[in-house]
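A reminder from the course coordinator: this example appears on the midterm review sheet, so study it carefully.

Given structure:
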């Protein structure tokens, strides 16, 4: 199978991650042809996910289509690159119904246009007009400082780092206290045993 893909799709970028897991990279012009090829010839029929990685230094997104066989025993990761500045690629929603929601999520989070998907409306974000939040140029801290109001005057408005440090210290103190109590109980038990043995000796001496 892998040799056939290598020769038919002019790619050497094939990785065997496990006996049941393969990854192949192909130019975006042929990514759907490859997906159809492994589906028709090797029974890879289920689209589990579409993921995206932002390779901002190289100026592109890596889209990975994760497809399994009908018995779910084998998985194929088909990866392709698209330009991140004009991010678009054809939709896979006509071949896989579940692709619609995957593409909708990636459209919202990365700003990718999936041509042919007519349902690219907001999914998780409401009235979002900023840089898509999973693009690496998006500054989360700056956004929070500029657009969100921190809660004040509430008991649950705590500094996360300080609270984590406090909880760890509390757990450490409880552990130390438990250990000390255990040692004291052991010492008391030993003292009681020693006392009983001493009393027995005195009784025998009489």
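Designed residues:
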């Amino acid at each position: 199978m892998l040799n056939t893909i290598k020769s038919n799709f002019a790619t050497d970028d094939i990785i065997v991650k496990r006996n049941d897991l393969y990854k192949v990279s192909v130019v975006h012009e042929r990514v759907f042809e490859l997906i159809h090829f492994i589906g028709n010839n090797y029974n890879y029929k289920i689209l589990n996910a579409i993921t995206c990685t932002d390779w901002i230094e190289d100026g592109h997104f890596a889209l990975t289509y994760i497809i399994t066989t009908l018995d779910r025993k084998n998985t194929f990761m088909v990866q392709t690159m698209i330009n991140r500045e004009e991010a678009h690629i054809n939709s896979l929603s006509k071949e896989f119904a579940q692709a619609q929601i995957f593409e909708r999520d990636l459209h919202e989070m990365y700003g990718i246009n999936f041509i042919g998907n007519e349902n690219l409306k907001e999914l998780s974000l409401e009235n979002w007009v900023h840089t898509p939040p999973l693009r690496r140029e998006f500054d989360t801290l700056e956004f929070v400082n500029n657009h969100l109001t921190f809660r004040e005057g509430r008991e649950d408005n705590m500094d996360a780092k300080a609270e984590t440090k406090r909880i760890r210290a509390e757990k450490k103190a409880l552990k130390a206290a438990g250990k000390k109590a255990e040692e004291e109980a052991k010492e008391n038990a030993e003292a009681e045993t020693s006392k009983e043995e001493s009393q027995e000796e005195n009784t025998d001496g009489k």
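Residues 108 and 129 are 11 Å apart (CA to CA). The longest strand covers residues 44-55.
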